[in-house]
Amino acid sequence: xxxxxxxxxxxFFLASLQNAHALKISSYQMTFDLLPDGRANETIAIAFxxxxxxxxxxxxxxxxxxxxxxxxxERNLEFSLVRSGNENEVRFMVxxxxxxxxxxxxxxxxxxxxxxxxxxFTNLNLPGADAVTVKAILPKGFAVYRGVVYPSGxxxxxxxxxxxxxxxxxxxxxxxxxxxxxxxxxxxxxxxxSSTAIAAALALIVVFIHYRKKAGKEFVRGFSEDExxxxxxxxxxxxxxxxxxxxELKFSRAxxxxxxIKLSSKELVEKERIGRTNRLHYKK
Length: 284
What we know:
Elements: E1 10-13, H1 15-19, E2 25-34, E3 40-52, E4 55-62, E5 65-71, E6 79-84, E7 87-94, E8 98-107, E9 111-114, E10 117-126, E11 131-137, E12 142-150, E13 155-158, E14 163-169, E15 173-183, H2 190-194, H3 198-213, H4 225-237, E16 239-241, H5 242-249, H6 253-265, E17 269-274, E18 277-282
Parallel strand pairs: 1-10, 2-11
Antiparallel strand pairs: 1-4, 2-3, 3-8, 4-7, 5-8, 6-7, 9-10, 10-15, 11-14, 12-15, 13-14, 16-18, 17-18
């Protein structure tokens, strides 16, 4: 796992999932089971309000994924996977009579690390459903760092061994989820587990040394083109009003807000509320 690569993973269900044969989704749950090596075992569980007719569905996953399976609860469904750039489009047929679907895969680049504090970030596009739940389960021995969680209103609980965060949302719509977590005792960390491969350990050392030498420069690998544009302006200006950047780059306020949330979660930008906008301070 290369902790220096801050890649954004975004999951989209296409409109066909919400409207296939006018079938309503009764419940939709996304679970991110964070593993000690920094990957996330992601499961999307969907229940319909009645048996579905045979239909073709698809979704697009952005980022690195592996071990993909699609099941109707009784058997694995066949699917085709087409990769274009950083996007993975998965297409599959839903058999007639299907009441629920489960999609599972391993996702990388959702977790990043800095100074022994680990962060999770993803941006979701949720479908409409009677109940929509997003859940993240921390690795064993980890806890939320200083209450840094977005969005607010989360439920924090434990199964006796692992802490989890859960959001109940109304959907549909976009939802950015981010939080920080840390090992509760010093001899337990993601680094210990991720160093089982010699090559990965050597890559981590090289990246760490490079990061220290380049501390005064922005690090843009894994960012979208729009995010790089904002970073370029901030690295030059150091401090700039958010609405000025919106006008200069011709971004909508919603797009700019999502970008600022991501850059803030990675501690590249600090925002200061000024009237109806923010003053952005570049921290590198």
